[in-house]
Amino acid sequence: MAGKKHRPKTELENLIESYRAEGLSPEQAVHKAHATRKDREMPKTPRRPRDPNQLAKLIVGIAAGEEEDASPAPKNEAAVELGRKGGQKRAANMTPERRQEIARKAAEKRWSKQA
């Protein structure tokens, strides 16, 4: 098969290969590569200090405009809109008997917890 094209390696494959070169087992390399990517792709919300005095100082600083409040990133509006449509579509496609069955199961679960 002359002229066969190879696809370029993904970032994950490159990470796994570099961890394997460091001497990690295949399982360890895959685990570490996934953990590394997750940290990169999903930014964490800023953590506030646990000490009440430091937290109070931060809050006063934010209120006075001396410190910047690092608020979490806004939600993706397109994803929010799709989420809203999902429940309505599901209800529209369901027969009244099926909705009644689901409601009955939910009520039984809810009341069985209290007994």
Word description of this protein:
By secondary structure, the protein is mainly alpha-helical. It is 66% helix and 0% strand. Among the domains are: 10-43, no CATH class; 77-114. The chain contains five helices and no strands. Helix 1 crosses helix 2 (26-41).
Report the helical percentage.
Answer: 55-70%
According to DSSP, the number of beta strands is 0
How many angstroms separate the termini?
Answer: 70 Å
Reading the helices and strands in chain order gives HHHHH
Assess the beta-strand content as a share of residues.
under 5%
Shape by Cα distribution: extended
Short description:
This protein has 115 residues and is an all-alpha fold. It has five helices and no strands. Helix 1 (11-21) packs across helix 2 (26-41).
Provide the fold topology.
Blueprint: H1 11-21, H2 26-41, H3 52-64, H4 77-93, H5 96-114
Identify the notable features of this structure and list them briefly:
extended; mainly alpha; 115 residues; 66% helix
